[in-house]
Design goal:
alpha/beta, two-stranded parallel sheet
């Protein structure tokens, strides 16, 4: 299996991970790439490089849970493969838990129904390590219990179960990848930002970095380009069908250590501010990537030093460009 000459659709393709996936897809020489995004967090600017490198790229503003419109689009574009990344992010679930759960599951249900009806052939679905909840044993493999602590995590766990049920009941061609904590250029730095972009932004603005809680909570971070490459490998390998694959570094770092590392690289000497612990915040995450290694030869290739350096440089450049435009 490969993507050469195929018509590919990416939901959430204007987002952080989605846009990097689009960049990586271009190298596979598909005949057609369609990005569907409602631009809740996605940005047109995230696809600037993709538009230059693939002038035929189609960008459609649409709710990916709208089955009738998605069906019409897939017929028009003769879609063969869908990479499903469209999602309402975790922080929103602390404000609008019902909407986040329903909408995320509806997006997945739409993808499942359309592949069941033969509108396209293969689904590559992006899950989340948040489906696991807190670490009960380490490293967390694909058999780890699913005990999500937020409606976002619950929506991702439910979506995974939904896809697997369609695999078993209707024989759909699908694989689920479960990335751990992605970071890299283009990560959202606004209201729903993760710890890396929000810390970089605070330091660049001259503010002190902030740590929620005691900072001893850990995460398993993986560079976004490594995740994009893994998703394509998961498509290429037929042995992945009907399975869930963790995409993880299998290394953990505490939030305090991470913030200290960023402060060092940004030459920030201001003291860290400790704020209240965030609701639903997981204590420990570290994933096992043994299955991904076995099936698709997955190995994260971007070191912390290189990944963080690239991320910081991107945010510095983005901040400079905004200043110049003003």
């Amino acid at each position: 299996m490969d993507l050469n000459g195929k018509s590919v659709l990416v939901t959430g393709g204007a987002g952080f991970i989605g846009s990097h996936l689009v960049d990586r897809l271009i190298k596979e020489k598909p005949s057609n790439i369609v990005v569907v995004d409602n631009f809740y967090l996605g940005k047109q600017s995230n696809l600037q490089d993709a538009e230059l490198n693939f002038p035929a790229l189609k960008i459609v503003k649409m709710d990916c849970s709208d089955q009738k419109r998605m069906e019409k689009l897939m017929k028009k574009e003769d879609v063969e493969v869908v990479f499903n990344l469209a999602v309402i992010p975790l922080p929103v679930s602390l404000i609008e838990p019902c909407w986040v759960y329903r909408h995320n599951v509806d997006i997945t249900l739409c993808a499942c129904e359309l592949v069941r009806k033969g509108l396209y052939k293969t689904l590559v679905h992006f899950s989340s390590s948040e489906a696991y909840g807190d670490c009960q044993y380490a490293p967390m493999d694909e058999q780890h219990p699913l005990n999500p602590t937020t409606s976002y995590g619950a929506s991702k766990a439910a979506s995974d179960h939904l896809i697997l049920s369609y695999c078993k009941s209707f024989g759909i061609d699908a694989v689920i990848i479960r990335p751990f904590n992605n970071y890299g250029p283009r990560q959202n730095e606004g209201s729903y930002a993760g710890v890396i972009p929000i810390t970089i932004k605070r330091i660049l603005c001259g503010d002190s970095p902030v740590v929620h809680g005691d900072g001893e909570q850990t995460r398993d971070f993986i560079y976004v380009a490594d995740t994009a490459a893994a998703a394509i490998k998961a498509y290429d390998c037929l042995k992945t069908r009907g399975k869930i694959l963790n995409i993880a570094s299998s290394k953990e770092i505490s939030i305090s250590s991470l913030v200290a590392l960023m402060a060092e690289q940004l030459q920030c000497s201001k003291p860290v501010i400790h704020d209240e612990e965030r609701p639903g915040d997981l204590r420990r995450l570290i994933g096992s990537n043994v299955l991904a290694k076995e099936l698709i030869g997955f190995e994260p290739i971007t070191s912390w030093q290189d990944g963080l350096k690239s991320t910081i440089q991107w945010f510095k450049k983005a901040r400079h460009n905004v200043s110049v435009e003003k």
